[in-house]
UniProtKB/TrEMBL annotation, chain A:
<dbReference type="InterPro" id="IPR036318">
    <property type="entry name" value="FAD-bd_PCMH-like_sf"/>
</dbReference>
<dbReference type="InterPro" id="IPR016166">
    <property type="entry name" value="FAD-bd_PCMH"/>
</dbReference>
<dbReference type="GO" id="GO:0071949">
    <property type="term" value="F:FAD binding"/>
</dbReference>
<dbReference type="InterPro" id="IPR005107">
    <property type="entry name" value="CO_DH_flav_C"/>
</dbReference>
<dbReference type="InterPro" id="IPR002346">
    <property type="entry name" value="Mopterin_DH_FAD-bd"/>
</dbReference>
<dbReference type="InterPro" id="IPR016167">
    <property type="entry name" value="FAD-bd_PCMH_sub1"/>
</dbReference>
<dbReference type="InterPro" id="IPR051312">
    <property type="entry name" value="Diverse_Substr_Oxidored"/>
</dbReference>
<dbReference type="GO" id="GO:0016491">
    <property type="term" value="F:oxidoreductase activity"/>
</dbReference>
<protein>
    <submittedName>
        <fullName>FAD binding domain-containing protein</fullName>
    </submittedName>
</protein>
TrEMBL record, chain B:
<dbReference type="InterPro" id="IPR046867">
    <property type="entry name" value="AldOxase/xan_DH_MoCoBD2"/>
</dbReference>
<feature type="domain" description="Aldehyde oxidase/xanthine dehydrogenase a/b hammerhead">
    <location>
        <begin position="17"/>
        <end position="123"/>
    </location>
</feature>
<dbReference type="InterPro" id="IPR036856">
    <property type="entry name" value="Ald_Oxase/Xan_DH_a/b_sf"/>
</dbReference>
<dbReference type="Pfam" id="PF01315">
    <property type="entry name" value="Ald_Xan_dh_C"/>
</dbReference>
<dbReference type="InterPro" id="IPR016208">
    <property type="entry name" value="Ald_Oxase/xanthine_DH-like"/>
</dbReference>
<dbReference type="InterPro" id="IPR000674">
    <property type="entry name" value="Ald_Oxase/Xan_DH_a/b"/>
</dbReference>
<protein>
    <submittedName>
        <fullName>Xanthine dehydrogenase family protein molybdopterin-binding subunit</fullName>
    </submittedName>
</protein>
<dbReference type="Pfam" id="PF20256">
    <property type="entry name" value="MoCoBD_2"/>
</dbReference>
<dbReference type="InterPro" id="IPR008274">
    <property type="entry name" value="AldOxase/xan_DH_MoCoBD1"/>
</dbReference>
Length: 280, 744
């Protein structure tokens, strides 16, 4: 078992081809699986991506804001660069506690593909893209297509996530991230909602919302259905939106919550998110 | 270098500095790793058990099955249903089948995996009421053919008559749930064996003498061939009493002839946890039109799990103790303790009293609501008063319950209750407890202290009680220091070794301050007398002890000199006194009537909550705790008890639940078993109404459990006030409250 720390994406991709290495970033998912999720066999190597400069920062591009996969939750909520993404900042700030936030990465949150992942939810609402690098070069795809289900992604053998790209039009919109959990800090989401909306004069020009922990993966509505967000949302319109998102949920019953309770929370939190961005 | 004497090896500073050495940190020469093979089935016959492959693994020193260990009748209570390892049948998931001692953790794991077992699964029973039905699978034929090792039936006064007379009757089926004690340090032990000394077990247990007696019986050994040494305890709350892990470690050490250490990880600890006994209460209370409580009638069902740990005492407490808060004119209790194929349940802080008070305090609020009376008023009208003898015989030399209610109303701003905004609520609840309980060991009660003058003039105080982090050592040092006029820091309190220290009944039932504290006080007084007579002998008549020094005329002498005087006259022996405190109590009789404790603490708590009607989520936004615990000996530690208890209670009422389905724990991790964090705890205002109790050391009464007892009731009442819906089943989790609000 070796701990390897490549210094570039190219080197990382090459190493992933040469040896049976497992990508690790903060390790906050990988190393705390408990008895239910035993660690990899000992002969496996660990490829630590935190020394790859490209993965560690953000940059503005024509498309929008490109965030390196190894950027930590703490960096997201602390750094000026991410002010334009308040929903992501709020989600980052709720992840674990301080110690976890100092290690937990955005890429890890995406790659881990937990239905209850928090930072994934604003990224879904942003209609973010995932930039991947592998032996056959680079590719990018919509986050919606990348996360396939609980702990299932489109990541291929030997591939790693380089960055996540948030489209330009999302930057600086009115945003909110809300999470329902069981206690006040360090918890796992029972239901979460992220909303980004272009609001002017108490009216929504367009909006995009995503719901987490209420289905096998975080989900959005189609852009067509999202037209319902437009305008001055009155109580009736909000209730209709809440009901629509709730209808699209497919929650499970587990030790944390029952299915019908989760569904009702989707409704509640969609409406709360709407009221929040409208300043009500 | 630290020059100052540490007050106790388990004291706060040592913990903060990481100096405390728990059993996990200990390593004996030649020590082996012990592991246990546990049943994956809640009820099954062992058809075949083959350990030959395990025995052949390199590094494995001993492998034991039920065939290799003695099968004496034993157990910690009078219901002797324990074994060391199962022989033919397993009774719950986690029941111990085989054990391995090996050179390494890996070898031990490998050996466990190599053991072959074939089971024939048997039907299980998981609910106490179903366990009582004819035809239910029977767990312990010889002890209870009807799965009911214990039944309680008592009545005082004429409940039937009061039922006729009552103008208001409120009732309901209330349930308290399984709570994982949440000890930071998982269960573990090291055991060793020698032919001369027998078994020595290093185990965090706060009832080590009962453990010694129980384990000796398990091995058919005389009691003094078992020694329990108690390292610092990393949290217990009732979980670390007498445990099978200790016995199995000993069995392995005997077989391997080397020390064996078994430490559970959190997962094993939770899967096999012995949680708070879940209780179901069918409770009814009636009052007249003026709000005088006439009767209380309750049937209690308790789930003992597959073996008896401490559940009998818990159900007995539930059936009696809360009745001693109010002047019920009659009371009737029926209790059924039942075996099921769940992991055995045991005690936890509050010990049946907190559970029953959740139900009683809820029903009393319902009565107040129906009568249109203020809940605090209704209580004031019915509480017991100083000088009274309660319905079950408790003699109340002191009782500041009325003052507690007045004070908690004042500091909480109780009058705000009438016009709180929607979905805000305030609730009040009362509690009592004991300071040691006469019936814990019918043979004897009390506590012994040994006080020794060391050569440097410092003192060593030995006690049979156990330090659990509750501050016992600090309290004893303070009590002895006050009597002798010496600095507290010069007294080192030692305990936790059945081979060295005085006998102790066990540190439970909130007994350490009053029982052990009285013993410490008696010992300090005896030492004072001995010092004065020694000084008179050496210096002349009129010598005295003042401010921790010997005085004779104008001259004063430090205690180190007195130590030398004594040794010079006694062949080098140190000046040592030994005193026993025996409380003036009355053993409860067959009907549970008696005066079981030297004194009784009381409390009144108020909780304020805010409930989110859309999600059911409760936030406790304010909390006020007023206590009558007599003289407070160490205010910092006393407050610590209350803060901790309220936090524990908030967890219990709003989120904690060890979910068990068909005998299987569904949330065996700290991730899925939610406990509150600092941000779930509001500001807690505490007031101690100090009055001297004649039977407590320096006037003290107990505090440890009475601080938790009212919390479930207070929060439940606040939630009912906020939502208009009564919660019957703990925890009142967000989802449950949401269901209650949205049910029609
Ligand atoms: C106490 C605690 C609390 C937590 N609370 C929360 C919470 O509130 N909300 C929440 O969403 N999560 C929470 N988590 C989960 C975890 O912290 C997050 O999912 C975190 O974002 C994972 O990032 P990481 O860098 O630690 O991932 P790692 O553990 O390093 O990796 C996770 C997975 O992602 C893969 N991976 C990582 N980086 C890449 C990459 N660049 N390319 C391809 N694959 C990659 C790894 O191979 C692995 O499969 C918590 C965890 C703990 C221990």
């Amino acid at each position: 078992m070796a701990w390897i720390q490549p210094r570039s994406v190219a080197e990382a991709v090459e190493l992933l081809q040469q040896r049976r290495a497992r990508v690790v970033c903060g390790g906050t998912d990988l190393f705390v699986g408990g008895p239910a999720r035993p660690l990899a066999p000992e002969q496996e190597d660990w490829l630590d991506v935190r020394r790859i400069p490209e993965l560690c920062g953000a940059r503005r591009t024509e498309e929008g804001l490109e965030i390196g996969a190894a950027v930590t939750a703490a960096q997201l909520w602390e750094e000026e660069t991410y002010r334009a993404l308040p929903a992501l900042q709020q989600a980052a700030k709720i992840v674990g506690g301080w110690q976890i936030q100092n290690r937990a990465s955005l890429g890890g949150n995406v790659a881990n593909a937990s239905p209850a992942a928090d930072m994934v939810v604003p990224l879904m609402a942003y209609r973010a893209k995932v930039r991947l690098a592998g032996a056959s070069g680079e590719r990018r795809m919509a986050l919606q297509d990348f996360i396939r289900g609980p702990r299932m992604t489109a990541l291929q053998e030997g591939e790693l996530i380089v960055s996540l790209i948030v489209p330009e039009r999302m930057l600086g919109t009115a945003q909110v991230f809300l999470r329902h959990d069981q206690r006040a800090a360090t918890d796992i989401s029972i239901v979460s909602v992220a909303l980004a909306a272009a609001v002017a004069g108490g009216e929504i020009a367009w909006a995009s919302a995503a719901v987490g922990a209420a289905a096998a993966r975080a989900y959005t509505l189609s852009e067509e259905e999202e037209q319902l967000w437009r305008g001055r949302l009155d109580a009736k319109a909000m209730a209709r939106l809440g009901a629509l998102y709730a209808a699209r949920s497919a929650p499970i019953t587990d030790v944390r919550a029952g299915e019908d309770y989760r569904r009702s929370l989707v409704d509640t939190y969609i409406q709360r998110a709407a009221r929040t961005v409208l300043g009500q | 270098m630290k020059t100052q004497l540490s007050k106790s090896p388990a004291d706060l500073q040592a913990k903060l500095e990481g100096q405390t050495r728990y059993v996990h940190d200990m390593r004996l020469p030649g020590q082996l790793v012990g592991k246990i093979l546990r049943s994956p089935h809640p009820h099954a016959r062992i058809v075949r058990l083959d350990v030959s492959r395990a025995r052949a693994i390199k590094g494995v020193v001993a492998v034991l099955t039920g065939e290799d260990v003695p099968h004496h009748t034993y157990g910690p209570t009078k219901f002797k249903d324990w074994n060391i390892l199962a022989r033919d049948r397993v009774l719950f998931i986690g029941d111990e089948i085989a054990a391995v001692a090996a050179e390494t953790d890996a070898a031990a794991k490998q050996a466990i995996a190599a053991i072959e077992v074939e089971y024939e699964e048997l039907p299980g029973v998981f609910d106490p009421e179903e366990a009582m039905q004819p035809g239910a699978p029977v767990l312990h034929e010889t002890i209870a053919g009807d799965n009911r090792p214990m039944r309680i039936a008592l009545e005082r006064g004429d409940v039937e008559r009061h039922k006729q007379e009552a103008a208001v009757v409120k009732s309901g089926r209330y349930r308290s749930n399984r709570i994982y004690q949440g000890h930071l340090e998982p269960i573990g032990a090291i055991a060793s064996w020698s032919d001369e000394e027998g078994i020595t077990i290093w185990a965090p247990s706060h009832i080590p003498y009962r453990a010694r007696e129980t384990y000796a019986a398990g091995f058919g050994l005389p009691e003094d061939k078992v020694r329990i040494v108690v390292p610092p305890i990393g949290g217990s709350f009732g979980s670390k009493y007498v445990l099978k892990v200790h016995v199995i470690a000993a069995a392995l050490a005997m077989a391997a002839r080397r020390p064996v250490k078994i430490i559970m990880d959190r997962y094993e600890d939770m899967v096999t946890a012995h949680p708070r006994v879940p209780l179901t209460f069918d409770l009814e209370i009636g009052a007249d039109r003026e709000g005088n409580l006439l009767y209380k009638d309750v049937v209690v069902y308790a789930d003992a799990g597959a073996r008896v740990y401490w559940s009998p005492n818990v159900i007995a407490t539930a059936c009696t103790r809360p009745d001693n808060i109010y002047r019920f004119q009659s009371a009737k209790s029926e209790g059924h303790l039942c075996y099921t194929n769940n992991s055995p349940t045991t005690c936890m802080r509050g010990f049946g009293n907190a559970e029953m008070l959740f139900a009683v305090e809820s029903v009393i609020d319902e009565i107040a609501l129906e009568l249109g009376m203020d809940p605090a008023e209704l209580r004031l009208r019915n509480i017991v008063r100083p000088g009274e003898r309660t319905i079950h015989g408790y003699r109340l030399d002191t009782c500041l319950l009325e003052e507690c209610i007045d004070k908690v109303k004042a500091i909480s701003g109780w009058e705000r209750r009438a016009d709180l905004p929607p979905y805000r609520g305030m609730g009040i609840a009362l509690a009592n407890h004991v300071s040691g309980f006469r019936a814990i060991d019918p043979r004897f009660d009390g506590s012994t202290a040994v006080l020794r003058l060391k050569g440097d003039g410092s003192l060593e105080l030995e006690t049979g009680e156990i330090e659990l982090g509750q501050g016992m050592s600090l309290s004893y040092a303070r009590i002895a220091a006050q009597v002798l006029g010496v600095p507290e820091g010069s007294i080192l309190v030692k305990s936790g070794d059945t081979g060295r220290y005085p006998f102790g009944i066990g540190t439970l039932a909130s007994r350490s301050t009053v029982m052990g504290g009285n013993a410490a006080k008696l010992a300090a007084e005896a030492l004072q007398r001995r010092l004065v007579s020694l000084a008179c002998e050496v210096l002349g008549k009129g010598a005295s002890l003042e401010d921790g020094r010997i005085r004779y005329g104008e001259e004063t002498y430090p205690l180190s000199e007195a130590a030398a005087w004594h040794r010079a006259r006694h062949a080098g022996e140190e000046l040592t006194v030994r005193e026993t405190y025996v409380p003036d109590t009355e053993m409860p009789d067959a009907t549970y009537y008696g005066h079981p404790s030297p004194n009784y603490p009381f409390a009144a708590h108020v909780a304020e909550v805010e409930v989110d009607p859309d999600t059911g989520r409760t936030r406790v936004v304010g909390y006020w705790a007023v206590h009558d615990s007599g003289t407070i000996i160490h205010e910092t530690m006393a407050k610590g008890q209350v803060y901790g208890a309220v936090a524990q209670g908030i967890g219990w009422v709003t989120m904690e639940d060890l979910i068990v389905e068909q005998g299987r724990v569904k949330n065996p991790s700290m991730m899925d078993y939610r406990m509150p964090g600092a941000r779930d705890i509001p500001n807690i205002e505490i007031a101690f109404l100090e009055g001297e109790d004649p039977n407590g050391p320096l006037g003290a009464k107990s505090l440890g459990e009475v601080a938790l007892d009212p919390v479930p009731g207070a929060i439940a009442n606040a939630i009912a006030h906020a939502t208009g819906k009564r919660g019957y089943e703990l925890p009142l989790s967000a989802e449950r409250v949401w269901r209650a609000i949205h049910s029609t």
